[in-house]
Amino acid sequence: MANAALAKANLHALRQVVAAIEEGRQHTGKLEEASQRDEAAGRLALGVEAFDARLEGGLPVTGLCELRAALTMDAGAATGFALALSSLVQERLRPERPILWISEREAGREAGLAHAAGLVSFGISPSSLITAHPRRIEEALWVAESALQTEAFSAVVLEVRGNPAKFGLTESRRLHLKAREARLPLLLLRQAGEEEASSAQLRFLIEAAPAGLRRIDRYSAPGTIGHPAFRITVEKSRNPAPFAFTMEWNADDRQFCLAGPDSLSGAVHASGTAHPHRSPAASADGPDRTDQMGRVLAFSRAS
Question: Where are the domains of the chain?
Answer without folding.
Answer: 43-205
